[in-house]
Design a protein that fits this description.
Oligomer: single chain
Mean pLDDT: 92
Helix content: under 10%
Order of helices and strands: EEEEEEEEEEEE
Distance between the termini: 36 Å
Number of strands: 12
Strand content: over 45%
């Protein structure tokens, strides 16, 4: 699925944009305050499992970023993953954010100027129905 780009810019002018390609890769690019966007980078390599949501993105004043997305998991539901970007290391490997075989969808996130972030998503659980789950990330700064 080629997805609509999702763009966030903070008060300092740092920005991140992310989108899905036709081959199911998830792409992203970052821009430091007052500068142009860097080269497109692959956050999630082309895969047989389709992206199941638009990405959610956030960026801090140092252009560290976080992107989260839902993707198919091969059992008819979807999983939620996230990857971090730092200026020193680029995009890290995607990490699962939940551990069920149920449906995870509709991620949204916010990040403050020092990189603390909050990620929220819808999670279907057979016993509880649809719930909103939230995960916090500390920047360590």
């Amino acid at each position: 699925m080629l997805s609509t780009p999702v763009l966030r810019m903070n008060a300092a002018g740092a920005a991140v944009v992310s989108w899905g390609r036709l081959d199911n890769a998830l792409m992203a690019a970052t821009a430091p305050p007052g500068a142009a966007f860097g080269a497109d980078r692959v956050v999630r390599a082309a895969a047989s499992q389709a992206l199941a949501s638009l990405p959610a993105v956030g960026v801090d004043d140092a252009t560290n970023a976080l992107v989260a997305w839902a993707q198919g998991n091969g059992v008819g539901t979807s999983d939620l993953l996230a990857a971090r970007h730092t200026l020193a290391d680029g995009w890290g490997a995607p990490v699962a954010q939940e551990g069920t075989d149920e449906i995870a969808t509709s991620p949204d996130l916010a990040m403050n100027e020092v990189g603390n972030a909050v990620l929220a998503w819808q999670q279907f659980e057979a016993a509880a129905g649809t719930r909103i789950l939230v995960r916090r990330y500390g920047s360590g700064r």
